[in-house]
Design brief:
single chain, alpha+beta, 8 strands
């Protein structure tokens, strides 16, 4: 398992990027998704791109309450299906199943979302994951 990033939602990406630049971070990657109407901006300390902060900016205004501005911790895993099965076997609810063979979400006992991302290419679709519905929020 490898730690990837922490995601926070932001209402003013320019101001937030400026803040993190003063702190010493630099922009290392950006994804603008017109269809989904959001931008993902990844920041990291110079020379340490292994630990990133993901700024998520939803283009349509949204009030962030109940901690919704803090998104999730992300980990790359060797096999997302095996990881989810191990978690389920331990009583953990899979909030967003890895239907795409690539991404799943679970929550800690304190409701912090954890994103699990498949290392390398997505795995081929497989049951029970392909048809498993979402549970709750993540």
């Amino acid at each position: 398992m490898k730690y990837l990033h922490t995601m926070i939602r932001v209402t003013d990406p320019v101001a937030t990027i400026d803040f993190f630049k003063v702190l010493g971070l630099e922009e290392v990657r950006r994804i603008d998704n017109e269809k989904g109407r959001f931008s993902l901006i990844f920041l990291a300390a110079p020379g340490d791109h292994d630990a990133q902060v993901e700024l998520t900016h939803n283009w349509d205004p949204e009030a962030y309450d109940g901690g919704r501005n803090f998104g999730h911790l992300a980990y790359r895993v060797e096999n997302v299906y095996e990881t989810c099965q191990r978690l389920m076997d331990s009583g953990v609810t899979i909030n967003r199943a890895p239907r795409d063979g690539n991404m799943a979400f679970v929550r800690t006992p304190d409701n912090i979302s954890i994103e699990l991302l498949q290392e390398g290419d997505p795995l081929p679709p497989a049951e029970p994951w392909s048809s498993m519905p979402n549970t709750g929020v993540w």
